[in-house]
Amino acid sequence: MKENNKSNVLFVSVHPDDETLGCGGTILKHKCSGDIINWLNITDMDNNHPFNFSSEIVEKVQHIIMNVVNSYEFNNFINLKFYERIIDTISISELITKISKVIYDIQPDILYIPNRSDVNSDHRIAFQAIYPCTKNFRYPFIKSILMYETLSETEFSPPLAENSFIPNTFVDITDFIEKKIEIMKLYETEIMPDPLPRSAHAIKGLAAFRGSRIGVRYAEAFMSIFQKY
Description:
Layout: E1 8-13, H1 18-32, E2 36-44, H2 55-72, E3 76-83, H3 92-106, E4 110-114, H4 121-130, E5 144-148, E6 169-172, H5 177-184, H6 200-214, E7 219-227
Parallel strand pairs: 1-2, 1-4, 2-3, 4-5
Antiparallel strand pairs: 5-7, 6-7
Helix pairs in contact: 1-5, 3-4
């Protein structure tokens, strides 16, 4: 719940690392401002996953996630633990029920969510479940909803008008870019070598490009899809 007029912010990721790629600097900036920061992650893996991930990989991923939680100093971390890569086997109604409960429990003012048209099918399905949980007449505490871009997912969407990510909100993360990259490097199973999309080179390059839009060195960009004044 909201305390002492601080913003209560919920960052939603489909997979661990989306939150850092899409809005890691913004998470750090909210924390620095004294806001309450919450992380909802939708998919995960365990030893029963149909893809038969090794126990070593599962243990490593769980360790990484907790290191990331501690690095950002999240006030709350909720992991729904639906299986990644096969989220299409889960009914939308079940996803909505679980996500809706978290949103009601957290009651965020500001919501950061994945882009609706990312090439990753998990992202698109998750968006279809997340967005119904933001109707103002049922969730009146939400004042702002922003979609974020995820390197290796957003820019690889087919170049069609309906898939366009057109940012209209920019956050100066100049003071937080190095920490963002440091946290991303915790994801040793996901970080890529330069110059690939999830590399430090690409992360910094995108942030520099977005920063140029508002005259700062580094920024993160969002599509504001709801704003309550």
